[in-house]
Amino acid sequence: MKIVVDAMGSDVGTSVEVEGAIQAVKEYGHDVILVGDEAIIKSELDKRGGSQGKITVVHAPDRIEMNEPAALSVRRKRKSSIVVGMEILKKEEADSFVSAGNTGAVVCAATLSLRMLPGVERAGIAIAIPTMKGRTVIIDVGANIDPKPIHLFQYAVMADAYCRYILRIPNPRIGLLNVGEEESKGTEFIKEAHALISKSKLNFIGNIEGRDIYVGDTDIVLCDGFVGNVILKVSESVVDTLVKMVKKEIKSSFIATVGALLANSAFQSLKKKMDYAEYGGAPLLGIDGRCIISHGSSTPKAIKNAIRVAAEFKTQDVNKHILEGLETY
Amino acid sequence: MKIVVDAMGSDVGTSVEVEGAIQAVKEYGHDVILVGDEAIIKSELDKRGGSQGKITVVHAPDRIEMNEPAALSVRRKRKSSIVVGMEILKKEEADSFVSAGNTGAVVCAATLSLRMLPGVERAGIAIAIPTMKGRTVIIDVGANIDPKPIHLFQYAVMADAYCRYILRIPNPRIGLLNVGEEESKGTEFIKEAHALISKSKLNFIGNIEGRDIYVGDTDIVLCDGFVGNVILKVSESVVDTLVKMVKKEIKSSFIATVGALLANSAFQSLKKKMDYAEYGGAPLLGIDGRCIISHGSSTPKAIKNAIRVAAEFKTQDVNKHILEGLETY
Lengths: 329, 329
Description:
The first copy, chain A, has 329 residues and is α/β, with parallel strands linked by helices.
């Protein structure tokens, strides 16, 4: 198993990807190709005792920055780590790609280099979030901000395969995000998607609302990439705000401070449950290849887990199951 | 000042509205018309020592349930508290309307009975949420799930008047919710709205992202009613989920339980800050009249505050300022 890792993607930079790759080599035994500025990668490798023979380096001097326009930067920066990494995958010199870089650029490079699976019109990013009862997959969280109803049906099929073969959820329940539960609710786009998915053989439970997501009674939440992006960012921000507010309140009282110290174990355990690093990034589904997108603020552990999941997509042959799903449903 | 209150709206039912009305009469001295089942209202009034001369009752035997389709129920249930209450406003026998009932039905009845302000094409619901730095108004949170770019411009003007004259924010900063900060980001709808609002004289700070809302550096967040509805419901749900998770973690450890008891004052103070009841409901802006929509789970205090805000809309003549704003900007 050989995984290509974009070594210039994360906010912190190369050290995170190099450390994550070394951990993945030790823990899973996969081969890793690190793509990026060769001198920096080698220096980071040397600090950690060298490549151990399982890590190779491919030079790509350019970095696509987080705020660069996706399509333009992919077309112009042909020697960027994202474009060079994707080309390695295209030439079938590796099995999967992992990047914590500019999401739009990764989607664009993957779509241009690898193309779509036959029968899939648009790629979608699926992310598994923690809920009260386990994990729920939201698709799409930003690959396609203006989809057609048929794309939501294809997302449902792709997320179904992801749930079954990677997350080990046997018969995933699929909900369509709407402003109310009744069939009559929503925009024309949502009503058409509802009609389309209702007619399929998927395990469709109908419309769900924003308040239902974190309850965890739905395994897959379908929405357009605009709404999905907003959900993720608002959720992270509510958590951050609450934590900051609690800290501020606690500081204003001595007894509360003592209490907070005693309750600390509970907060730590909770934090671990909410930790995105445990979940190994978000697969870009629908492309004729395998690609995992990690959070820009990834830790080495997050990169290590992303490499694990990237390998599982190959072992489990998720793309084959997506193609079967498109025929079956 | 005379405020009509839908006495059949809230989830708990008439007792909440009657108690809220009595508190508002005592605290602000406004007259209140309670609309709903006369026998039930009178019995609730009697339990609390009668109407005190400032509360009158108008009989409306029907209730539009929370999940009934809005347009249909407004057309069919002509003797419902929402329809009868709105007719009282139309005949100018009262100054404002307050309802904790079916939001869609309130929007529909208001639009049909009272019509729009000249120059406004669609009504929008504005809600003031607590942030790290105070309050931020999100518009629209569900009146219009498929708006045109010009509607977002009109929402901006209306929310600007709401901020200036009710929330006392002198020069409100207006942000457009998008998936990135760059002008090039977003759907065609968002790009057109961006261009339109940029050309106006409004205090427009450009695109903002989901993660920026609770930071509180924007006073007004513009979005379509679908996205706004999802933001509100997801935010409430994240808070609920976190609280439940913390409680669960704490129960599993004795020391943590003791700590949590000691930290309790901090949580209580925080809870008060997040309490929607303090904010007195969400105005439906753009109609040729005054209407405040309260949460279905409103407490008497929430109803009392909604009555206060409903009166302020008249005193401050917000609608006049909206009309001026449409000309100025």
